[in-house]
Write a structure and sequence with these properties.
It contains two helices and no strands. It has about 70 residues and is an all-alpha fold.
Length: about 70
């Protein structure tokens, strides 16, 4: 089901994440940025890990994955 390094699965994950993106949903509902046309998002969101560890953001910020930093 995957191609090479899991490209198909990564693409599916990215598309699933985009389905629940709050900003894209708000724009599609016409509640923000009228007449704005964003380019296709072809990369995964940024995940914040504690530096040099596999632990996901244990700081007081408790950041969530995002397409912007």
């Amino acid at each position: 089901m995957t191609s090479g390094g899991g490209g198909v699965m990564k693409d599916q994950l990215r598309l699933n994440l985009l389905r629940y993106d709050q900003l894209l949903k708000t724009i599609s509902e016409g509640r923000a940025f009228p007449n704005f046309a964003e380019g296709k998002i072809t990369f995964p969101p940024t995940f914040k890990f504690d530096k040099g560890t596999p632990s996901y953001d244990t700081s007081h910020k408790q950041r969530i994955p995002a397409w912007t930093d």
